[in-house]
Each structure stands twice: as structure tokens, then as C-alpha cells.
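Course assignment 3, question 2. Fill in each field.
Student: A.L.
Task: Predict the tertiary structure for the chain below.
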Amino acid sequence: MRPSGRDLSEMRPVSIETGITKHAEGSCMIRLGDTHVLCTASLEARVPPFIKGSGLGWVTAEYGMLPRSTTSRMRREASAGKQGGRTVEIQRLIGRALRAGVDRSALGERQITIDCDVIQADGGTRCAAITGGWVALRLAVNKLMKSGEIVCDPLVDPVAAVSCGIYAGQPVLDLDYPEDSEAGVDGNFILTESGKLIEVQMSAEGSVFSRDQMNQLVDLAEKGVSELVAAQRAATQ
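Answer field:
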């Protein structure tokens, strides 16, 4: 039995509310159970120096957790004077993941920055940020197309992410914090709607795992991502 009472292949309740902020070109609040992440997309008429003049656009991301997004207050990274290694790793992951679904030549020489702020954390924050980040990106691109600044849709394949793991000896979908903290194997799976893998992060946290178990987790991830993409589409139509 999972702590939440969910079936092994059951996602937490998912909701995506758009139009959360007034100024961002795209915004949403994604709620994955008790994990809540605010995602905004900001358009800029510039690109990083290393691709300037290439005709290619750029999608990047920043990620952070509010001090009381967890059970005890965390110190703001700004007060420490630098970002932690986990934060840097996650925001690079979000950027890589979202760029995988973008035709950067169709985007043109402009940058879209996705800001992901964790309001409340209960496991799977990076997966929620990627999934919500795609919605914010979709909304920002819709504005570009509506204004006529671009004519071809640069978003070629929706991107979403979900966690899976081995908990109490069983493969489970969408780990919440009680499961994540005790899982023998923990994994994050980023896929496109068409089922292509973008990135897989898997590690043995307390026990090794077999190829068969890994395949079971990939199957669960495909199911979870298909449900998340359906939620993304419903939110942006």
C-alpha cells in the first residue's frame, strides 16, 4: 500500500491554471498533488552571445524554492550569495528538456526564459517545473504567433516529466515526498508526447535494480507523461 493510498500506476491529482501573473507573456500554476510550482515565460529580443547571428532562438530556465516551500524554512540562496549545486543542476535540466521540443530556427533570434518557483514542495518539483514550464512556453509562443512575429509554430513536440521509482519493492508512478524519501530506486523521466526520451535520471538509493525493473519504470513514465500532456493541452486550448 502506498502512503497516499494510490494504485501503483496512479498519478497524483494534476491541475494547471494559466494566466497567473499579469506581466509575463506566459504563466501557469501547476499543482501535482501537494507540489505547487509557479511557471512564467518571458520573451526577450536577444540571444546569448554564443548563438548571436546564427538565426537560432534560445530557451533557458531558472529555478528556485521559496523559503517555506518545505517543512522547515530554507535560507534564500540570494542571502548566501550564490546558488546551490542542486538549483544549478535543476535549472539546466529544465532548459535542456524544453529545448528538445523546440525548433529553434522557427523561433528566430529571440530568447524565452522560463522561471520556475516552487511554492510548496512534496516531491517531484523538477518534474512539475518542466511540465508547467512547457505550458508557460506554449502560451508565450501563442502570443508571438498571434502578433505575427513568427509564422511557423516552433514547438514541435510537447514535453513533460514524471518521477518513478521502486518503493517497498514495487515500481510506482509519481513519487510524493514520503515515497521519495524511502524509495530504493528513484528516477526522473522526461519524454515528448510522441514517446521519445529526452533525459532519464535514475539512481539506486538503497537497493540495486534490474533491467526488467527499469523497463517497468519506463512504461509507468510513458503512462504518466501521456496524462500530463493531456493536462497541458487542456490548459492551453
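Instructor remarks: The CA atoms of residues 5 and 12 lie 10 Å apart. Strands lie at 14-18, 26-32, 35-44, 58-65, 111-120, 159-167, 170-173, 185-192, 197-204.
Grade: pending
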